[in-house]
């Protein structure tokens, strides 16, 4: 069921509701198929956040051929719409609902206890009755790509285009600089806040502003290739942080990593099918069943840098290296993480400070 | 601030202000003829998606811009039929078309979301680049930016130095009188509206093929509405409208440069600065009713029927 559009869904809702009202008790529908409902906030496209979610539910469908049927709606932009859509999906007999973004978390948190189905929300915060959450330790990815950046920068200035100063973006940014500083202590990172998750014109202007400040390796959390293309135009490196844009940015993408949510989706479906689904909170990074996967390396990267990145990746997966191991100071010089100890997860998930070496204010809000 | 950064900011301002300049100058001509076209945002998006699709099919920016222009003109023609011939409320029809254009662009752009254009480097630019000193500076800006200045000069000349422009302004001031003299009011309004739509289409195509060569839904991000405000901001005078377009574009990009330079102003404030600046200027300009009455076309927004 690829790209089951909203129009199709509405057309079939009438029939679907009639069937659902007859009542389908039990976890599986009459023909033993688990029906899963997925709601995307934006349009599913070639690149970006929605693509990763789409890949994940397609992988889930492929992992259980014939036993899982997905109804995916995209472009449900408002939270109020999302609430209505989730309710309809549940009434239609979907026994597993997947929320794909943080903005649906509040909706699902309210709905899940009232619906008799299993819910999961990507980028959610806390579990509750019937609701599990999962998030990626993307800072592990930015740490590794930061190593590449630190080695390849000639001006010792990195650039980061931030969307919003939420913890997910902040720990990515901090991880990036920490990784760069682990190989090049003199490096700094300038940050420009675009105040939008996806506004191509603004992102392009932000890149130009950073390049004007002599940044020569740029990163951020782009949903489209515009940042990489703008960087390439100016002749500087870009790093595909949460996205591999090498199909568009032919020469100047240094490295990239992607988010792979399929372990979360597949596990959710598996446990629902087996009948032992429980609300869990998963926060995983690199590793075989993790959510962060390094992708391309530009051939220009020297082999010792690639080897170093592989070595650090192995260390992180084995638990021997935590990117946020002290001593770490924040921008004001205060020691935030004591020497030798890693920053605890609870503090990491709610981080609201920038490490020393990041140049740019943190919008208070 | 170093010289090179100043040049970067000026370049960024010109680039950011160009789509606004096109859309606002087009709307200026339409409003001078008495037609209030609120659907600029929809026409811009329609121009953007059409321009992107055409450019990605033919690998040529100019074909994309031409296609965008025709898409904007087509949408404006629909608006013209509804508002001028069928005498519907111009405000309602314009808003409806804005929403329609937005939805239509999302629909047409379905298969292209997030994809990016791969364009041939321009051979003309390679030649111009050879010119010593000014060459590299000139090629930093796309020809469409220079054409926008040509458009400004053309609109200015047309409106104030030609008889046709005088007739158009007359139609905007008092269509009944113009009709009594014998001028084809309906035809003039049609042409002005379609021209306005075409320019909005060019603005959208510029955004999608030159500024950021990719398509995402709603990529104009409200610029159509800003262009609308800029026409009032400039009290319906082309020079002031152009100034407003660059002011808005400049403030939008300057705040990003300021962040990069480490100026410690809250980014949310800087993000809203362009809109605040526009509102402040609008309030200042319209505080004097005389000023507005002297410059606004007297019959703006009023439907005209010969026998009404």
List keywords for this structure.
heterodimer; A: alpha/beta; Rossmann fold; 7-stranded mixed β-sheet; B: 308 residues; mainly alpha; 14 helices
How is this structure best summarized?
The complex is a heterodimer of chains A (365) and B (308). Chain A has helices spanning 6-22, 49-63, 79-91, 105-111, 138-152, 167-183, 200-212, 226-233, 262-274, 303-317, 345-349; strands spanning 34-39, 68-73, 96-99, 118-122, 131-136, 157-162, 188-193, 217-220, 237-240, 253-259, 281-284, 292-297, 328-329, 335-337, 358-359.
Characterise this structure:
The complex is a heterodimer of chains A (365) and B (308). With 365 residues, chain A is of the alpha/beta class. Chain A has helices spanning 6-22, 49-63, 79-91, 105-111, 138-152, 167-183, 200-212, 226-233, 262-274, 303-317, 345-349, and strands spanning 34-39, 68-73, 96-99, 118-122, 131-136, 157-162, 188-193, 217-220, 237-240, 253-259, 281-284, 292-297, 328-329, 335-337, 358-359. A seven-stranded mixed beta sheet of chain A has the order 12-10-9-8-6-7-15, with helices on both faces. In chain A, strands 2-1-3-4-5-11 form a six-stranded parallel beta sheet, sandwiched between helices. Chain A has a two-stranded antiparallel sheet with strand order 13-14. In chain A, β6, α6 (167-183) and β7 (188-193) form a beta-alpha-beta unit. Chain A is globular, with a radius of gyration of 21 Å. Mean pLDDT of chain A is 85; it is low at 21-26. Chain B starts with a helix and ends in a 13-residue tail after the last helix.
Produce the secondary structure layout.
The complex is a heterodimer of chains A (365) and B (308).
Chain A: H1 6-22, E1 34-39, H2 49-63, E2 68-73, H3 79-91, E3 96-99, H4 105-111, E4 118-122, E5 131-136, H5 138-152, E6 157-162, H6 167-183, E7 188-193, H7 200-212, E8 217-220, H8 226-233, E9 237-240, E10 253-259, H9 262-274, E11 281-284, E12 292-297, H10 303-317, E13 328-329, E14 335-337, H11 345-349, E15 358-359
Parallel strand pairs in A: 1-2, 1-3, 3-4, 4-5, 5-11, 6-7, 6-8, 7-15, 8-9, 9-10
Antiparallel strand pairs in A: 10-12, 13-14
Helix pairs in contact in A: 2-9, 3-4, 5-6, 5-10, 7-8
Chain B: H1 3-32, H2 40-58, H3 61-85, H4 90-108, H5 123-129, H6 134-139, H7 143-161, H8 163-173, H9 175-181, H10 185-211, H11 223-233, H12 238-260, H13 267-286, H14 289-295
């Amino acid at each position: 069921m690829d790209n089951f559009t909203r129009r199709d869904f509405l057309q079939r809702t009438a029939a679907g509701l009639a069937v659902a009202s007859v009542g389908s008790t039990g976890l599986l529908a009459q023909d033993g198929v688990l029906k899963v409902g997925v709601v995307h906030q934006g349009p599913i496209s070639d690149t970006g956040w929605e693509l990763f979610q789409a890949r994940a539910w397609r992988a889930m469908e492929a992992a259980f051929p014939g036993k899982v049927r997905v109804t995916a709606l995209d472009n449900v932009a408002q939270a109020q719409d999302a609430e209505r859509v989730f309710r309809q999906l549940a009434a239609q007999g979907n026994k597993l609902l997947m929320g794909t973004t943080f903005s649906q978390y509040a909706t699902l948190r309210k709905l899940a206890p009232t619906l008799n189905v299993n819910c999961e929300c990507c980028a959610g915060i806390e579990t509750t009755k019937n609701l599990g959450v999962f998030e990626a330790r993307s800072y592990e990815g930015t740490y590794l790509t930061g190593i590449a950046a630190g080695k390849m920068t000639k001006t010792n200035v990195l650039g980061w285009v931030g969307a919003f100063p939420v913890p997910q973006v902040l720990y990515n940014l901090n991880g990036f600089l920490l990784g760069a500083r682990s190989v090049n202590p003199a490096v700094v990172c300038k940050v420009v806040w675009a105040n939008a998750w996806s506004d191509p014109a603004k992102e392009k202007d932000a890149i130009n502003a950073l390049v004007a400040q002599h940044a020569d390796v740029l990163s951020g959390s782009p949903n489209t290739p515009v940042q990489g293309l703008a960087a390439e135009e100016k002749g500087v490196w870009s790093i595909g942080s949460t996205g591999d844009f090498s199909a568009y940015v032919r020469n100047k993408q240094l490295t990239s990593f992607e988010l792979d949510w399929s372990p979360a989706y597949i596990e959710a479906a598996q446990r629902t099918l087996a009948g032992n689904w429980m609300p869990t909170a998963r926060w995983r990074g690199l590793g075989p069943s993790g959510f962060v996967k390094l992708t391309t390396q530009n051939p220009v990267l020297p082999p010792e840098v690639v080897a170093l990145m592989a070595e650090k990746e192995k260390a992180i997966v084995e638990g021997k290296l935590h990117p946020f191991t002290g001593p770490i100071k924040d921008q004001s010089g205060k020691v935030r993480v004591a020497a030798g100890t890693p920053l605890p997860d609870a503090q990491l998930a709610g981080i609201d400070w920038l490490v020393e070496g990041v140049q740019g204010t943190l919008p208070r809000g | 601030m170093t010289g090179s950064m100043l040049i970067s900011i000026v370049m960024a301002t010109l680039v950011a202000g160009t789509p606004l300049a096109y859309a606002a100058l087009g709307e200026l001509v339409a409003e001078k003829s008495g037609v209030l076209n609120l659907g600029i945002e929809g026409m811009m998006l329609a121009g953007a998606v059409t321009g992107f699709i055409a450019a990605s099919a033919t690998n040529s920016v100019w074909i994309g811009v031409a296609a965008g222009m025709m898409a904007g003109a087509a949408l404006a023609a629909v608006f013209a039929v509804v508002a001028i011939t069928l005498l519907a409320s111009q405000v309602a029809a314009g808003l409806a078309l804005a929403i329609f254009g937005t939805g239509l662009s999302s629909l047409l752009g379905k298969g292209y979301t997030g994809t990016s254009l791969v364009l041939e480097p321009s051979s003309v630019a390679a030649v111009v680049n050879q010119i010593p000193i000014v060459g590299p500076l000139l090629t930093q800006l796309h020809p469409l930016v220079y054409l926008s200045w040509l458009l400004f000069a053309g609109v200015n000349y047309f409106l104030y130095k030609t008889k046709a422009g005088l007739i158009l302004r007359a139609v905007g001031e008092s269509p009944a009188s113009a009709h009594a003299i014998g001028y084809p009011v309906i035809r003039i309004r049609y042409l002005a509206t379609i021209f306005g739509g075409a320019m909005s289409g060019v603005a959208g195509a510029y955004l999608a093929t030159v500024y950021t060569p990719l398509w995402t839904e709603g990529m104009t991000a409200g610029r159509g509405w800003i262009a609308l405000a800029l026409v009032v901001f400039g009290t319906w005078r082309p020079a002031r409208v152009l100034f407003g377009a660059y002011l808005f574009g400049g403030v939008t990009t300057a705040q990003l440069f300021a962040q990069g330079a480490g100026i410690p102003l809250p980014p949310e404030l800087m993000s809203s600065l362009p809109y605040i600046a526009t509102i402040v200027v609008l309030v200042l300009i319209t505080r004097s009713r005389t000023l507005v009455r002297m410059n606004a076309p007297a019959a703006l927004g009023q439907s005209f029927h010969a026998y009404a």
